[in-house]
Amino acid sequence: MAKKERNKVEEAYVYVVKNPSYNDICLAAWDSVLYPGTPVVYETRFGLDLGFIVGPAPSEENTYTPGYAGVRGACIHFGSNDKEDEAENEAQDINEKDIHQCEYCMGCQVTKEPKKVTVTGDVLFLDHLATPAEMAKYNENSAKEDDAIIVCREKIQKHNLNMKLITTHFLLGEPKVIFFFTADERVDFRDLVKDLVSVFRMRIELRQIGVRDESRLIGGLSVCGRDYCCHCITDKLEPVSIKMAKEQNLSLNSMKISGPCGRLLCCLAYEYDYYVEEKAAMPAEGSKIKINHELFKVSEVNILSRRVSLQGADGRVLYVPFDDVYYNDESQHWCVSQEWEDEIFSS
């Protein structure tokens, strides 16, 4: 099917499209309204292939802005009592449409209708909607993938190659099969490719991926009991460092902060920016605060409980709410409010 010519700028609907075979996610535009689950054919990095509409593209206003308390999906319903909420809503006679709707909370998210936006040349357009014949071919290709994996593993063993085959995929738009594998070092697989071409009689592509990509492709359950973030939430593998765990006062036990791939958990990066912003407005750990003519050392800044832990020379520990800690511009020192100090030392 010939691809429709596009102008550089035009009005169209923009959608999130996911390829289930190698878990790629991208934004793509189309002329009409499409709903989640609609099969489409679009240009991927490997060639024309089939994908499914996930939903409308998120708007720019959903991006994180510094100082926003609802960071990365935080919901104002968190920890609330459902019965209390129902009673409160009945008492106030609140209409259903007026009840708070969180952008990312699965419990109160609503389906949004796509809206036309101005599309520039940076956004990919779908090639066309998948036909019944293409869906049949896709299902046929999927059924052949298990056999292809068996054949490829036999050939790998035959050539005694130090590589681990992860998965395979038959491309929809052309006679081509892609094999994804991991290896500790560079592998010379030229003879393997020749053998595979003689078996499948089509183009063969062997693509080496990292251990994080392996988890992203095959999926699974993480320590939280949910699907891997890299498999079900995003296909972008952002860099994660041990500094992110330290900033959030998490255990530095590698078993607790590492995923099944052996690398640091992707979710360590989700609230990192928020922690950095909040801690920037509080005294640094290790600094001193003078209270009632005594110096106390800041031992911890707890973002979740929103209080600062102070330790005295005699081992005494005080907990000060964030609201009672402030920076005195005149003395250029951190202080606590007089009201809090009077309340603590008068009792």
UniProtKB/TrEMBL annotation:
Residue ranges of the TM segments: none
Cross-referenced Pfam families? PSP1 (PF04468)
Provide one Gene Ontology cellular component: cytoplasm
How far does the signal peptide extend, from start to end residue?
none
The segment(s) forming the PSP1 C-terminal domain are 124-209
- InterPro entries found in the cross-reference section: PSP1-like, PSP1_C
Recorded superkingdom: Bacteria
Name it: PSP1 C-terminal domain-containing protein
